Amino acid sequence: MMFKMLKTINVILFSCFSYSACLSAEKRQNGAKEIIMEKKSFSDSTLLDSLLSIDRKGYIGGKVDSFLSDSLISNYKSFIFLDGKPGLLKSLSLKFSDSIFVIIDVDQFQFMNPFDVKRKWNLEDFKKENISNIKLIYNNQIIAPL
C-alpha cells in the first residue's frame, strides 16, 4: 500500500514538473511562430524534404507575402535582410535551423526603397514586392536553385 502511494506521488510530481517545464519554455518564447516550431520539432532531413517538396517556381513573379503564407514557410525561426551591394537590399533570408535557410530574392522594388545605408528595411513593405528567385540553402550550399 505504501509503495503504491509513493509511486502515485512520484508520478504526480513528475507530471507537475514536466508541465511546469513546458509552460516556462513557452513563456520564454517571443512569438507564436517560435512556439509552433518547438512543438513540431522537425529533424533537419524531414524539414529539408518538406521544403524541397514546395513548388517554388509557382511563386516566382508573385508577392513575397504569398510565399511567406505557406504553412511550412511561415514557421521560420528568424529572418535577416541581405544586401547585394552595401546598403542595397537584395534578399530576405529565412532561418529554419542552423543549417537550413530559404533565400527570397527581389530584383525590382516597387513598394519600398531598397537603398538604406543603415540597413533598416521593413518586412511588411518587403512582403508587397514580387519574387524573382527562391533558393534553398543547406550547410552553406545552394541545393535547390531555380
**How many distinct domains?**
2
Extended strand count:
5
How many helices does DSSP assign? 5
Poorly predicted sequence stretches spanning 5 or more consecutive residues: 1-41
Main structural class: alpha+beta
Rg for CA atoms? 21 Å
The strand order across the widest sheet is: 1-2-3-4-5
Largest sheet, in brief, is: 5 strands, antiparallel
Descriptive notes:
The protein has 146 residues and is of the alpha+beta class. The protein has two domains: 1-30; 32-144, no CATH class. Helices cover 37% and strands 20% of the residues. The chain is built from five helices and five strands, in the order H-H-H-H-E-E-E-H-E-E. The protein has a five-stranded antiparallel β-sheet, with helices on one face. A hairpin with a 4-residue loop joins strand 2 (89-95) and strand 3 (100-105). The longest helix has 27 residues, at 2-28. It is globular. The termini are far apart. The relative contact order is 0.14. Residues 1-41 have low confidence and may be disordered.
Write the layout of secondary structure elements.
Elements: H1 2-28, H2 32-40, H3 44-52, H4 64-68, E1 78-83, E2 89-95, E3 100-105, H5 123-126, E4 133-138, E5 141-144
Short note summarizing the structure:
The chain is an alpha+beta fold and 146 residues long. It has 5 helices and 5 strands.
